[in-house]
Amino acid sequence: MSAASIAGAAWLEDPGLQKLLGVLSADGEEARVAGGAVRNTLLGEVVTDVDIATTNPPDETIARAEAATFKTVPTGKEHGTITVIAGGRAYEVTTLRSDIETDGRHARVVFGRDWKRDAERRDFTINALYAGAGGDVVDLVGGLADLETRTLRFIGDAEQRIREDYLRILRFFRFFAWYGSGRPDAEGIKASARLKEGLDQLSAERVWAEVKRLLSAPDPSRALLWMRQAGVLTRVLPETEKWGIDAVPGLIGAETLQGWKPDPLLRLEAIVPPDVGRLAAMADRLRVSKAEAERLRQWAASAAPSPETSEAELARIAYRGKPEGIADRMRLALASADAKGEAKTAERYARLLSYLHEWEAPSMPVSGNDLLAAGLMPGKALGAILESLEDEWVDSNFSLSRDALLKRAAELAAKG
Predict the structure, then answer these.
(1) Helix, strand, or coil here: 63?
(2) Beta strands 137-139 and 129-131, pairing class
């Protein structure tokens, strides 16, 4: 892949983008699409974000874009990045840069006009590809050859690249999960293992964002394996140390068979112990969202029903428990059964999951106010009666009517 072009890509032909590239490339300046959009187009993958690199300083980028009636937002002006809204789409336009000082988390940069120096400050060869408005790809660091073999390789010295930003350790495994093939680059693995302690300097938000993206890959199994080998997985997810990642390949297989979309939270549950306390601590450490923390808690607090469970029994279990946690338990149980060749068990879990997906929790026909209106006295006894009524209603498969429950309430009240 010594020469390449992305001419004809629908996103590249967007009139707004073409106009923006044109105004930024006038009068001796130059602008090119950079990074992921070029890489993904060459691989036949979906392009979601389009970033632009330019020789224009930030103020000149703003002046030219606004003269062309585009809206600009100085999202990272001090680092050379201006967001330009062109044709209803947002493009991050960044001035060519080189690093003059790094501390493993942040970098001080100087702006320049040297495309090779800009390429060399990036992380991986496959992420340092550029393309002009016509689609011709510019490769200054060997990215096209690596893309052809799906080799993920740091640009230059792997250790130096990592010391500039320790997040690159996680990005190395994340990009390998999405785009790599075979074995990861040996120097990248060695450098990641040697410098893994640097991950402790990173914010929890950055770590979780990268782990979540990695777990969202079509098949992160090999990346997780190499993360474990390098000691990186234990560094960021110590909960996996004595639990392991052996369940992941089976889960990936079940996802394919069942048509499930990649689910990073479910995959995380496959590699951590179902311990409410430990998972609460993990969620707090990683600063996951409240919804994510609650899902992990529900999963840890639930149990997978037996594959022989009837739909009526499952409805009762779901009413008394947390349906999403139960569903996650059954998904993992299905994946385990499928991996072991237990087809009938997997089929039963698939049936139960289908039922649970359609199930809606019924509403209790009577409330405390109904009991008060029926003449019962307020207090702890009323609460106990209401709880007993709900148990009887659930055990009847939710069939007891309002009248039957009110009659039963009178009986219980009469017994004292």
Answers:
(1) helix
(2) antiparallel
Other beta carbons within 10 Å of 408? 17
Length of the chain: 416
Q: What is the CA radius of gyration of the chain?
A: 28
Q: Is 142 left (phi over 0), alpha (psi -120 to 50) or beta?
A: left
Rounded Cα distance, 163 and 198, in Å: 8
CATH (residue range 1-149): 3.30.460.10
| Res. 1 pLDDT band, cuts 50 70 90 | very low
Look-up of token digits 């009178």: 410
Q: Could you give the CA distance from residue 267 to residue 249 in angstroms, rounded to a whole number?
A: 10
What pLDDT, in 10s, does the model give residues 179-191? 999 899 999 999 9
Amino acid 249 reads P
**CATH superfamily, region 154-235:** cca-adding enzyme, domain 2 (1.10.3090.10)
Evaluate whether 408 touches 389 at the Cβ level (below 8 Å).
yes
Give domain limits for the chain.
1-149, 154-235, 237-361, 368-415
Task: Single out the residue of 40, 58, 61 nearest to residue 49, CA to CA.
Answer: 40
